[in-house]
Amino acid sequence: MYSATSASLRKITVPELSARKKSQGAPPIAMVTAYDFTMARLIDEGGADMVLVGDSLGMVVQGLGNTIPVTLDEIAYHGRAVVRGTQRAHVTGDMPFMSYQISAAQAVESAGKLMKEGGFESVKLEGGEAMAEHVYRIVRAGIPVVGHVGLLPQSVHALGGFKVQGRGDSAAQIVRDALAVEDAGAFCVVLEAIPPDLAAEITAALSVPTIGIGAGGACDGQVLVCTDLLGMSRGHAPKFAKRFAELGDAIAGAVREYVRDVRSGEFPGREHAYKPNGPEEPTEPLLRH
Ligand code: KIV
Predict the structure, then answer these.
(1) Which of 44, 169, 268, 277 has its CA 20 to 30 A from that of 36?
(2) What are the DSSP E strand ranges found in 17-166?
(3) Is the pTM here over 0.85, yes or no?
């Protein structure tokens, strides 16, 4: 059962998260992706419960068309930065394509690497029944696992694109997938791009929380990619990605103003220059922790 006392702990723990079922009166889990220190610190300050270093970094950070080329070392590298930026939120790291599919032993080894080198508090991996044994072995090794069923972006080619899953007959398989990863020990399960009724059915069937992305409002939590949430993405945005700000326009506008001021000589002004006989002042602009 959710309790306000547990919510006030400094770092949110896995047992607290796994107990956050809306049906038991718990507040929904808010998860956001992050890939660097600065963004992670702001997301943590904003009160997100979970931060995901998603393999979506392939698209968001690296400009790729899908998540397939992302490596374990890259997730670990971004993880270290994100972990340094979070004080309260639980930080989970995505296991990239081919870092866990080959065997349960490979999955345990890769998950262990993310925990040791990335500093993560849990790992997330895509797949249902087919990956249940791998989830079980990782959990048995003492590593908390976030499941992920529905649209599996690492299977984009097999699926024929990033398409809504679970319409018609395939719905029953997604229910089985969610139950399988819960049985294997996942402490919560991401449901991606499935109809809201199916997400509601799965949420009712599971005793661990579901975290939806494009899966409607019945889930026990929601996850969004930070650049979608903040309105920094350009081009086609998925229907479910509500933009809570328009920081893309704000950033481009600020840079435009800076360029104009540099060109006109208005920047830097006297107030941005050091005085010849002034006091000692720090000069490192980035060391403002
Ligand atoms: O990689 C990612 O960002 C994800 C979320 C969209 C769930 O897997």
Answers:
(1) 268
(2) 29-33, 50-53, 90-94, 122-124, 145-150
(3) yes
